Amino acid sequence: MGQDFVMLSLTPLLIGIAAAVACALPGNFLLLRRQALIGDAISHVVLPGIVAGFLVTGMVATGPMMLGAAAAALVAVILIEVIRRLGRIEPGAAMGVVFTAMFAAGVLLLEQSAASGVHLDVQHALYGNLESLIWLDGYGWGALTDPTALAGLPPELGRMVAVLLCTVLFIAVLWRPLVIATFDEGFARAMGIPTAILGLALVAVAALAAVAAFDAVGSIIVIAMFICPPASARLMTDRLGRQVAWSVVFATLSAVLGYVLAGYGPLWLGYDNAVSAAGMIATVSGVILGGAALFGPRRQSVSRADATSLASTLAE
Amino acid sequence: MLWDALTLQLGYNATLVTLGATMLGVGAGATGTYLYLGKRALVSDAISHATLPGVVLGFMVMVALGGEGRFLPGLMLGAALSAGLGLLAVTGLTTRTRLHEDAAIGAVLSVFFGFGVVLLTVVQVMDAGRQAGLETFLLGATAGMLRDEALTIAAGGAVVLALVRLLHRPMILVAFDPEYAVGQGMRLARVDLAMMGLALAITVTGLKVVGLVLIVALLIIPPVAARFWSERAGHVVMIAGAIGGVAGYLGAAVSATAPDLPTGPLIVLAAFALFVLSLLMAPGRGVLAAALRHLRFQRRVHLRQGLLALAAGQPVYEPLTLRLMRRAGLARADGVATETGRAMAARARLDERRWQILRSDPAFEAAAARYDGLTPLDEVLTGDQIAALDRGLGPEGAV
Known about the structure:
The complex is a heterodimer of chains A (316) and B (399). Chain A has 316 residues and is mainly α. Chain A has 14 helices and no strands. In chain A, helix 2 packs across helix 3, helix 2 (38-57) crosses helix 10 and helix 3 packs across helix 10. The longest helix of chain A has 31 residues, at 2-32. Chain A is globular and about 65 Å long. The termini of chain A are far apart. With 399 residues, chain B is mostly helical. Chain B has two domains: 2-231, ABC transporter involved in vitamin B12 uptake, BtuC, CATH 1.10.3470.10; 288-397, no CATH class. Chain B has helices spanning 2-6, 12-37, 43-49, 51-64, 72-96, 101-126, 136-139, 147-176, 178-183, 188-210, 215-226, 233-255, 263-281, 287-311, 319-327, 339-360, 365-368, 383-391. In chain B, helix 2 runs antiparallel to helix 10 (188-210). The N and C termini of chain B lie far apart (76 Å).
């Protein structure tokens, strides 16, 4: 059991947790700034970049593909801004135009190239392949202290953990300005906080998390983790610090439960094949959100809660 | 080959598919306009992703009942049911909790899609032989589409279009001004439901051709493009339908010319090309028209200021002004005014002095508001008024 677990499940589980938390952290701020759908947009627009990176180098290497993804995200941000300004179009629609067109271009490029034969295909991009990120050298718990075995860890793990540390660092260092700029942009500007740059940096960090997670686990987890854990957490508390903590708990819970249910759930039900871990993680996060929406202590909007309490006071 | 495809010469099936895609595009463009004008364009993204579990469950149920799993109307029914559930979830999260609509949309689309993927992996091992077609619902595929399926899609598009025609007035009112619509005695929730229901219907219809990841583009891009061409809501609906139809037609036709040209992305890219064209070329709101307007304005400002400088006897150094004045025959290369230039300059100076008097006289307050340093006074006042104004005009330099 121990050996199987270390070899087959430990690394996917860790990667899943790291990806979930790395996306959920910036997601808290995106949610409050009403930019929740940026995760959705980013995970769509990086596809043409990844395919272009592949076509240019001709191999499935992470470096050029990440570069391509970053370039595509940049192009998308510029395009959305240009279309919004030139056409005086509301941001949601401008985003919809750009991300669907770029995703379509990516799919077309993919189908046209030889890439569709290799591991690069649209299904992979959409729901990743978390289960395949196994640690072949992990012969047991002892391998964790064995340098030669550690060298065989899937590279996605190191990358994902590094990105997670980046997001944690970003939010920890810029906590105060981020909070102020999120809740009261005018006040933040009056205090001398460069809100435009800060907003852009937040989107950049989110894009970094999205691209890294996209590479490891597919876009569906990215979108779910940007929104569901922070949204559930928002229904639990009024304080931002606690909301972030709750979101980390929910993200971790989704990743662990989702992975376990996908791997072992079907066995308990009598099937002998696992189901998609990425899909299951998204599903679990949705179940958590559903629970929070039904029973969360702070589920109602402030005005409505006020109205209710006022009504009960008046009734007394 | 391409010409054959565009003129529908590629055989019976390809023609049917192209016509079906055209009908779908028209329906989607028209329906999407109401969502876009009501600033709710991205709700359709949640609807489209939420269809996946329904498609797969529909397949599983039909197989379990011993039928043909890929029967399109059955899959469409399943898709409609789960998309309706998704829509309910978005509405519920927005109205009953403190979450905003964008968060609700993102949560529903990712969770439903994730659950659909889980079901998809269940089907993949359930019976490997017959499920091969389900992935095509992600990105759409028209290759090997049956005659009945193409007809179903065309019929779906036509029905949606007829309903749009019928519900135009309430939907446009609600999109623009919900409060006024309520004042007119409309049931907001009901009209909203109709609007979303139509979006859902067109999404489900388009699943097979465009795929659920990209169908949202057909609901968003044509209205956004159409908005450039007209300021009237009724016209925008029609233009959006036309743009969607052309995109569907072009995409399906081009995709029929080669085996590895997927239909969905081609339709979306055709729509995007039409959008770029609209953004650049549309009169009024287009970029080109705005640039021309700006140039014309710039030219008028420079000429006027140049003439005023000449009238005041000041030399003109500014290169653009000098160039414009030379081209208009008002000045020589060294900045000295020509005969016409002097005459025009005197007129401009007189005009400017009249304006100054006008602006200092409270009786002309309304006319003074039109002062922008460019408009000649005789466009604002009548000859008699100007004559009356001139009586207050002292000798040169007295102003």
